[in-house]
Amino acid sequence: MSLTATFAKPFAQSSDENKHVILKAIHPFLKDRSSVLEIASGTGQHAVYFAEKMPHLTWQTSDLMEAHTGIKQWITEAGLDNVLPPLKLNVSEDNWPSCQYDALFSANSFHIMAKHHIEDFFKNVSQVLEKKGIVMIYGPFNYQGHFTSESNERFDAWLKQRNPQSGIKAFEWCNQLAENAELMLLKDIEMPQNNRILIWEKK
């Protein structure tokens, strides 16, 4: 008798909880666009939910190789034509897509990434954006050198215990990197649970 190994589909509670409010915030910026590249798709939950709710978009997932199995499980189960299998993408390597997109989205990634990865992200992002393309980043940020809540401060300490190079990033620093990459801040949206959505547009 042969046994076939089965792997449980990954599930992130936070992605399930925040998908509704994120959709409400980003939909106005995506209603007239056709293609999105998602950086660090994680479990794939956001991708299939947003692709279902915005069928006019082609949603391209991407992540490191270890996340691909889970993302593919979510995509297969969803059965949607407009969400694409994940690309292998490390923001600090030369494996960025050769095509361009109307928008780029990433959630809960910047506080996981080391500073040099975010620097590399902004160095490369313009090459995958169409003219007037937008970058949408969801997650916590610090302002004027301060945490926006005590819970964010505790979260930052927890992140740094796991990986000293991670942690909540400063809005001003990210915005300067964006400006250096010819991106202009379009919107800074306050979100529940002390998060933000930062939206930049390619000049």
UniProtKB/TrEMBL annotation:
Keywords: Methyltransferase, Transferase. The keyword Methyltransferase applies. InterPro entries: DUF938, SAM-dependent_MTases_sf. GO terms for molecular function: methyltransferase activity. It holds the Pfam family DUF938. SUPFAM superfamilies: S-adenosyl-L-methionine-dependent methyltransferases. GO terms for biological process: methylation. This is Methylase. It comes from Hydrogenovibrio crunogenus.
